[in-house]
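QA checklist item 7 of 12: single-chain prediction sanity check.
[x] sequence parsed
[x] length recorded as 77
[x] structure emitted
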Amino acid sequence: MAAVKDRVTEDALSLPADARLRLVDKLLTSLNLPIQEDVDRAWAEEAERRVSQIESGEAKLIPGEEVFSRLRQKYGR
C-alpha cells in the first residue's frame, strides 16, 4: 500500500500547478469539510450577533488597554 501511495504522490507532484490545484480541490471536497462560503457565512452571522449584543447593551465592553493590563498582571509580562 505504501508503494501505491508513494507512486500516487509522485504522480500528483509531477502535475502542472493548475492540475494540482484542481486535484487538491477535489480531495478537500471529498472530505466534506465546510466550504469557505459556509465559513464566511458563519463568521458574518457571528459578527451580526455580537453587534446586536453590543447595541442592546447585553455585552459588556472592556477597553483594550484594560484587557492588556490585566493580561500583563496575570502572566507577568
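[x] summary fact logged: The two ends are 51 Å apart (CA to CA).
[ ] second reviewer sign-off
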